[in-house]
Structure formats: structure tokens, C-alpha cells
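TEACHING EXERCISE
Course module: macromolecular assemblies
Task: Read the component lines below, then compare them to the predicted structure of the full complex.
Student: A.B.
Group: 4
Components provided:
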Amino acid sequence: MNTATARAHPNIAFIKYWGNRDHELRLPSNSSVSMNLSGLFTETTVTWDPALNHDRLTMNGMEAQHDATNRVVRHLDAIRNRFNIHAHAIITTQNNFPTGAGIASSASAFAALTVAAIAASGQTVSEREASTLARLGSGSASRSIPSGYVEWHAADTHEDSFAETAFPLDHWHLTDIIAVISKAHKATGSTDGHASAKTSDLQAARVAGAEERLKRVKAAIAQRDFPSFATVVEHDSNLMHAVMMTSQPPLFYWLPASLALMARVRQLRADGLRVCYTLDAGPNVHCICVRDDAKAVRQALENLSITEDLIVAEVGEGAQIISSA
Ligand code: PMV
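Instructor-supplied answer key:
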């Protein structure tokens, strides 16, 4: 067996990861909580081939650019090292959603790559170890390994910083309606953003309060308490963007349309719909709502001229092997 295909979903964080205590190992400054996004996925096939003299990456049907290939090669080096693999690989990967536009494509990409590369080598590992390995490629990828609502533990060592399911996917039927404002690739990727987070005076305060917010969001999910959930999720997103805007160099991911949508979401909530917003490192607005209110939220957002597209996802499964040979 030397070929395997894996599928992984991106995730949206309710308590954000921004900044590392160790950049090389991607050990985060704070723990985070997310939900996987069903319907959106990366599918990746890895074939280990001892006859190759370098790794070859095809992304969305095209030969990958140098930077993307380098990052994948570095990640495969970690996997080769861990499993004593002496071969290069052919990797083909595709997303069924826009890449690099605030829908964490690196999370699903590195989760799928990790799971496919391990399975193609004929090895099996615990979910916990798969999560730590995925984390080395992209921090948030650790959260795309387990299913449902996921917590990623901040820790001082590689082995202890992993993600696990906090609540199963059917615990609470939340829907993410992603209002896509721009599909353009973001100018500053999150790896550079994590590195500059500490240049903001606000980062230490954000990190100091993260554990408390994480407890509050987990309690709100446990009790399916939307008002409490909405308050902490919007606050945590605002805090991360405040850090981004006050870093050196400053990072402004919000566009005018992002702000207009945030105001619209707050208004919809004041009008009685159970919806709140959160934004990752991009301008698109993730409108998180209770499934019963999703239709009404969708209709309200469809009528706005500022959105290019609406992408709808429910709570998704963890990374899975879909074939191996
Ligand atoms: O995994 P990375 O390095 O792409 O970082 C993701 C950071 C955010 O998406 C902005 C926040 C998060 O917790 O997902």
C-alpha cells in the first residue's frame, strides 16, 4: 500500500488562535475552539514513490507554485522523519471552495495531507497524534482532524498541543452562512500574522483573557445558550482583529463591506434571529446561526448587494481516509 486519499473540512474558530509561543512547532499562545464545516472540503491523494527524486504537488488541477510546494515539502519532511519514510511523493489536492479568502483552506489542506500521507505509508496513529502532526503544517489544521466542535489545547510541548472533540457534531445544530465579499487571495498569510501578533500592545491582553472566554463559549455550547455564545464569539473575533490592526505592520482584513455585514448581523439579532458573526484572516463574514433560523438569515443576506456569494455549512466530521491502495 503506498497511495491514500483523505478528505478534511475547514473549520471556523469561535475562540481564535492568533500568535505562537513557538513558531517552529506552531505551539499557539492560547487554546482555541472551532467547529468543522461540512460540505466544504479538501481532498488530497498522496503516493509515496521511491523512484522519485523530489515531491511533486498539483493543486486544483495545476502544478503548484514554489511557496506552496516548499511548505508541503517541509510538512512531508516532518512526516518522513516521524515514520522513517525514505521516498518522495506525488500529491494532488483540490478544494471545493475558494482558497485563501478567510475560509481556512490551510486547515483542511494540512489535515487532509497529514492523514493521506500517514495512511499511504501503511501506518496508523491515534487521532491525538494525527492532530499534533497536522498542527506542524498549519496550526488550525490540528482542529480539522477531530469531528464536530473541537478544542485545541495550547501547551509547551509538541506532544501535548493537540485538538480533540469537545462536543459531537449533532450536539447543537449550528449553521455557518459565509458571506463572501471577496474571493481574492489574502495579501498577508496567517504564518506572517502569527509572527507579528506580539508587536501589538493588545496581544498580551487578548491572550490573558482567552482561557476565560474559552470556558464561556464551551459552557454556552454545552447549554445551547445562543445569546451567551453570540456575545463571546463576536467579542473574541473583534479582539483578534484589534490585535491585527495594531500590529507592526498593521493588518487590516476587514473591508467596508465586512463592517456593513457585521452591523447587519447585529441588527438581525436585535430583531430576534439567533445569528452572530466571526471573521478569520480575511474579509468574509461567517454568520453563525441556529439551524432553525438559517433560512431567514440567508434571505436577509441574499438581499444585500455587497455579498458576492453565500456559502452554507453545518457542523462537519473529522478528517477521513476515503480510499487507499
Ligand atoms: O492555522 P493558521 O496559521 O492558518 O491560522 C489560522 C488563524 C485564524 O484563522 C485567523 C484563527 C483561527 O483560530 O482559525
